Amino acid sequence: MASRTLSTLALVLAIFASLGAPQARADNDRVRIGGNITVERGETVGDVVCIGGSVVNRGEISGNIVVMGGTLRSEGDVEGDMVVMGGHANIDNRVGGDTVVMGGAMKLGPSAEIMGDSVALGGAIEQESGSVIHGESHGFSGPWWLFGLSGVGMLIVFVLLGAVPFAFIAAILAYAIAGRNRVEAVAQAARVSTGQAFGLGFAVILAVMLLVWLATFMHPITPFVIIAIFIAFLITVSIGFAGASSWVGRRLARNAGPFAVVVIGVVVLQIVALIPVIGWAIFAFVLMVALGSAVLSGWGETPYWLAKRI
């Protein structure tokens, strides 16, 4: 299972890397954030990428299909791979590559022919009579499936679970690089302005989504702009989570040293993130506060950095 999961993640990353390359973007690609995409019969398009919406394909796709936070219904042939994260896939056509569903189920109709592998993480693979998978087939159900989550809700769960190991490494590295004073400034901002930090963190997420969407129109520098946005977001998350971990750890161990409270906070938050629904909600709340407090403090300059400038 571990090797299959790693190969699945490698496939997803490879697809996104190819979509970001300047030469990979063509005029007939379809990219949309916060809306649905429909490819009608008789249409031929390149890559199809949809974030926060669903895709219906009745035409022909010469590249890949990637759907995040929505469902996929495909009846037209696809030359490349098909990846759905946080939704279900109904496939009734020929697929030249692999089909991957993360956080949903995969249903193959009687005309479905998958030339590569088929993997469903978080749901089953249902094959109707006549459907063919030439490669390997793996369906893995997880405990979150018991809660009936789908769509954006399942996508959020996958993001949160994926953020758990990253958050530990990011918080420790941020403390080592940014230093004690900056991390404690972020922690104080989280402590004295929790509600404001949460709202600002949510605004940061929306701003990043908007900037990524705008970047798709900035040919041929789109991949460089997206990389810059990602780096800035990564820095903000890292120092913010280090500060939020210090805030949580200090409430639990008031006499511990500054580095120790960060470690305690990170470990506690990781344990909480493993609790279904309630734990996920708490972890998401802390992530929003972490983002907001990082900005409020000017990435650790002073706890009231932003307030002094507006």
Overview of the structural elements:
- This protein is α/β, with parallel strands linked by helices and 310 residues long.
- It has two domains: 24-141, no CATH class; 151-309, no CATH class.
- Helices cover 48% and strands 18% of the residues.
- The chain starts with a helix and ends in a 14-residue tail after the last helix.
Q: From the alpha carbons, calculate the radius of gyration and give it in angstroms.
A: 21 Å
Structural class: alpha/beta
User: What level of helicity do the residues show?
Assistant: 40-55%
Distance between the termini: 52 Å
Describe the largest sheet: 7 strands, parallel
Q: Strand portion, in percent?
A: 15-25%
- What is the count of helical runs? 7
Low-confidence stretches: 1-26, 144-148
The rough form would be described as elongated
* Largest sheet strand order: 1-4-7-9-12-15-18
Report the average pLDDT across residues: 82
The string of secondary-structure elements, in order, is: HEEEEEEEEEEEEEEEEEEHHHHHH
Number of strands: 18
